[in-house]
Design brief:
- The chain is of the alpha+beta class and about 180 residues long.
- The chain has one domain.
- Helix content is about 55%, strand content about 15%.
- The protein has four helices and eight strands.
- The strands form two sheets. Strands 2-3-4-5-6-7 form a six-stranded antiparallel sheet, covered by helices on one side. The chain has a two-stranded antiparallel ribbon with strand order 1-8.
- Strand 2 and strand 3 form a beta hairpin.
- Helix 1 packs across helix 2.
């Protein structure tokens, strides 16, 4: 049977988990960034969790830290980009779930009707939408990485948390783009 290629990004796995999450807290990236009650929480080895809110307030453990206006702007950027990963992950997960249901229907129907050549034609447009949506997650990861690095440079207390997203995470997100699906 002919092999069908569907384009995905590794972030689809995260996206599917995000779409299925019932609670307000779920791990987003490498178990270092999570969302809890509209805050972004960042964990680091041997450190209390850092928390950033939409106003750019930074808490290390339960202690609120004073930050300069430029640092607050970077914290707001980090927060917004992390929330974008969450939102784009949920959207991509929903598209992926819809694609899965559509693919099952297409495979069963077209095999039963003796038209296996129609499967790829029917599935590809939705697969392209999932791919485009997943690429948004990679763009979000790149933006968070940039904000993370800038925060580490300008706010020394943030340095232990600047390992949440690595250069490898960013490269890997963009590097693995194909999953082989055999109907």
């Amino acid at each position: 049977m002919q092999t069908k290629m569907l384009r995905f990004v590794p972030a689809i796995w995260f996206a599917a988990l995000a779409a299925c999450s019932q609670g307000s807290d779920f791990n987003a990236l490498n178990n270092h960034i999570s969302f809890d009650n509209d805050d972004v929480s960042i964990s680091a080895a041997h450190q209390p969790d850092a928390r950033i809110n939409a106003n750019g307030d930074l808490y290390i453990g339960d202690k609120a830290l004073e930050v300069a206006p430029a640092q607050r702007d970077l914290l707001k950027t980090y927060y917004a980009d992390a929330m974008k990963v969450r939102d784009d992950g949920i959207a991509t997960g929903k598209l992926g779930a819809a694609l899965g249901a559509h693919a099952i229907d297409s495979v069963v129907r077209n095999l039963a009707e003796g038209n296996p050549d129609k499967i790829d034609k029917e599935i590809s447009p939705q697969a392209d939408k999932v791919d485009q949506s997943a690429m948004k997650i990679c763009e979000d990861v790149t933006r968070i990485k940039a904000a993370q690095d800038a925060l580490a440079d300008q706010l020394p207390v943030f340095k232990p948390y600047a390992q949440a997203i690595s250069d490898k995470d960013d490269r890997d997100c963009r590097g693995r783009r194909h999953v082989t699906v055999r109907p």
